[in-house]
Amino acid sequence: MDRIDNHNPVKIGIVVDDIEAAARKYAELFGIPMPKISVPDPDAPVTHTPDSYTLYRGEYVPARTKFANLQMGPVTVELLEPYDEPSPWNEFRQKHGQGVHFITFTVNGFERHIEFVESKGLPLIHKGEYGSGRYSYFDSEDVLGVVLGLQELGKKQA
C-alpha cells in the first residue's frame, strides 16, 4: 500500500459549545431542515464488545457526545458537543474551543489503512466500531492542521 485509497472527504467534524444553537444557525443560513440532535444518556452504562467499542488513547471509554449531521451535498458536516469526559472531541474543545476537529475519508481495508497512516508517522489516537462501520482518528493536527479521520462502512474488510 502506498497511499490512502480515497481522496474525497465525506465528513467534516466541528466541535461546538452549544449544539442546538449551532444546528439552528446552520439550518437558517443554508435553508435546510433543522437536523435531529442525538443526545446519549450520560448515566447509561457503557459496554464494549468486539463489534461495538470506543478506544481512545489506549483506553476503552464511553466517548459520548451530542451530535447532529447536516448533509451538505456529498459531505456530511457533523456538529459535536462533547460531554466532559475523555474523548477526542472533549480534548479538542479543551485545547482549542470550538472549531473544525476532523476531516474523514471512507476507505476499504480499515486495518490496512491504519497501519499505513501510522507508518507515515501519524499515530492512531481514537478508534471505534458500531456494528455497521468503524472509524479512526490520527494524531495529525501538527502536520495537517486537522485530525485525519478514516472510516469504513459495511462488512469489515481486510
What does this 3D model show about the protein?
The chain is an alpha+beta fold and 158 residues long. Helices cover 22% and strands 38% of the residues. A 10-stranded mixed beta sheet has the order 2-5-6-1-7-10-9-8-3-4. A hairpin with a 2-residue loop joins strand 8 and strand 9. The two termini are 13 Å apart. The relative contact order is 0.22. The mean pLDDT is 93.
**Helix content estimate:** 10-25%
As a percent range, the share of strand residues is: 35-45%
Instruction: Specify the biggest β-sheet.
Output: 10 strands, mixed
The count of DSSP E runs of length 2 or more, i.e. the number of strands, is 10
Strand order of the largest sheet: 2-5-6-1-7-10-9-8-3-4
Q: What's the mean pLDDT score?
A: 93
Q: Provide a count of the helices.
A: 4
Shape category: globular
Structural class: alpha+beta
Unreliable spans:
none
What is the H/E string? EHEEEEEHEHEEHE
- Termini Cα gap: 13 Å
Computed CA radius of gyration, to the nearest angstrom = 15 Å
